[in-house]
């Protein structure tokens, strides 16, 4: 009897192995942010952002290295990493969330809310981001824009430079996903 | 079918273990999304974290160089008092300023030129950082920068006994700057130095000098750090007394403007002179104590986002 059970579990187990949730990955996702003030405009771009979507569970995760952000001014990158984001202590920013009412069968465009937690500089913040999801063949493209406040992430800005950095930062993203194999 | 139903407890245990193991293996396959991202993350970002934020620690150069297309306007000042009982000078009895322009020709090579008011020195330098790639295996455990300086002394020399042709008025400084970011806040630098400087008071004065510099930075805030620097000359000039230059100060960076405040015994601001010819030791009496103030303004002539 036990042997039968064992065989049953073996079969059940192995079929389960095949039925892993289908995932898609973006390896060169683009995230850029802008800070507009009357004193100075700051723009930075990261073209090496990673993201995975679990199509069955409608879950999405994003991870980016802070020191991969490129700025218009080279010295800003140094200051961003050393004095503001402290990227040697907090090297990554991570988002984990759910695409609400995501329907993977729709080809073409759908606009959905992505709800999740964004963690950066040791602080976590719940975000709801309106995103455009496009499906072409096997590829998915997720893009959108949202605003976030600097003060939510415990970033220390010296009073003398407060006028140079906007209180609200505009973030733009675009990820192109392709099928992911374990 | 002939199933053996009388399995020993041992056999049962093995079977159960195998089942458990299979279930566990199965679990690990439905891995967390963040684990996938962790696995996929590459460390190759080509970003070199700063060891010192500024191209100078206090009086001497640091291993830091600027990225291509950056022009730095560098103004250095030293203020000191004469050893008089009373003085009616505004702020300080004497002051010296050095104005310099430094341009980053490439991400690793900088050219700079400047002139000083008090000692009439015109100087030019080349600074080259030996490239290290961040995140790859061939990273050196420390930062290495080569520094070569040339200076011309334009001040009138009253003493007829001193040869002062063009070649006598020139000086050369070569340095190998080695620095290490010991911790997030603390960076250390050593600087073996060779100076060739003429214009000695006597013929038997050496023209070749060997010195060794030590400098450090300690960050006390995200934009503020405490710095100190010291140079020791192994074979000082014999015809007059010289002392080793020492500086202690604070560096404050404010975006495009960087400020340095220091107390030092070095009046001169060009390497060959302050390393080999600092005539006062460091103490709090006049005229030994100099208050130093350096301001650097950074211009970016290259938009990094338009590189690709």
Automatic annotation (TrEMBL), chain A:
It comes from the Bacteria. Residues 30-176 form the Lipid/polyisoprenoid-binding YceI-like domain. Pfam families: YceI (PF04264). SUPFAM superfamilies: YceI-like (SSF101874). Signal peptide: none annotated. Coiled coil: none annotated. This is YceI family protein.
């Amino acid at each position: 009897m036990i042997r039968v059970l064992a065989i049953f579990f073996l079969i059940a187990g192995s079929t389960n192995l095949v039925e892993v949730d289908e995932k898609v990955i973006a390896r060169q996702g683009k995230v850029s942010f802008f800070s507009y003030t009357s004193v100075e405009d700051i723009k930075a771009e990261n073209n090496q952002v990673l993201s995975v979507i679990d199509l069955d569970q409608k879950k999405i995760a994003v991870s980016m290295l802070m020191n991969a952000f490129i700025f218009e001014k080279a010295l800003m990158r140094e200051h961003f990493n050393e004095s503001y984001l402290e990227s040697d202590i907090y090297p990554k920013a991570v988002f984990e969330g759910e695409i609400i009412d995501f329907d993977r069968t729709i080809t073409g465009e759908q606009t959905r809310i992505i709800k999740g937690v964004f963690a950066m500089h040791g602080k976590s913040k719940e975000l709801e981001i309106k995103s455009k999801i496009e499906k072409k063949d096997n590829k998915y493209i997720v893009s959108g824009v949202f605003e976030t406040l600097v003060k939510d992430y415990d970033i220390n800005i010296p009073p003398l430079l407060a006028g140079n950095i906007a209180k609200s930062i505009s973030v733009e993203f675009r990820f192109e996903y392709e099928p992911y194999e374990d | 079918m002939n199933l053996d139903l009388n399995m020993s407890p041992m056999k049962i245990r093995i079977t159960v273990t195998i089942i458990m193991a299979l279930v566990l293996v199965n679990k690990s396959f439905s891995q967390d999304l963040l684990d996938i991202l962790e696995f996929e993350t590459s460390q190759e970002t080509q970003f070199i974290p700063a060891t010192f934020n500024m191209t100078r620690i206090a009086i001497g150069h640091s291993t830091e160089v600027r990225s291509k297309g950056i022009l730095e306007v560098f103004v250095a000042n030293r203020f000191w008092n004469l050893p008089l009982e009373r003085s009616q000078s505004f702020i300080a009895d004497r002051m010296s300023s050095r104005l310099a322009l430094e341009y980053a020709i490439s991400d690793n090579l900088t050219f700079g030129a400047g002139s000083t008011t008090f000692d009439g020195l015109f100087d030019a330098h080349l600074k080259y950082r030996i490239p290290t790639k961040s995140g790859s295996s061939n990273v050196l455990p420390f930062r290495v920068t080569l520094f070569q300086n040339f200076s011309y002394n334009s001040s009138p020399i009253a003493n007829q006994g001193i040869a002062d042709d063009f070649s006598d008025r020139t000086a050369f400084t070569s340095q190998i700057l080695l620095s290490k970011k010991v911790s997030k806040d603390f960076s250390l630098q050593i600087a073996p130095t060779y100076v060739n400087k003429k214009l000695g008071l006597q013929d038997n004065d050496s023209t070749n000098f060997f010195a060794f510099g030590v400098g450090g930075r300690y960050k006390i805030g995200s934009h503020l750090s405490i710095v100190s620097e010291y140079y020791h000359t192994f074979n000082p000039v014999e015809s007059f007394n010289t002392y080793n230059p020492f500086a202690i100060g604070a560096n404050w960076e404010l975006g495009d403007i960087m400020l340095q405040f220091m107390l030092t015994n070095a009046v001169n601001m060009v390497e060959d002179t302050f390393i080999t010819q600092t005539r006062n030791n460091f103490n709090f009496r006049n005229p030994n104590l100099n208050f130093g103030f350096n301001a650097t303004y950074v211009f970016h002539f290259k938009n990094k986002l338009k590189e690709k």
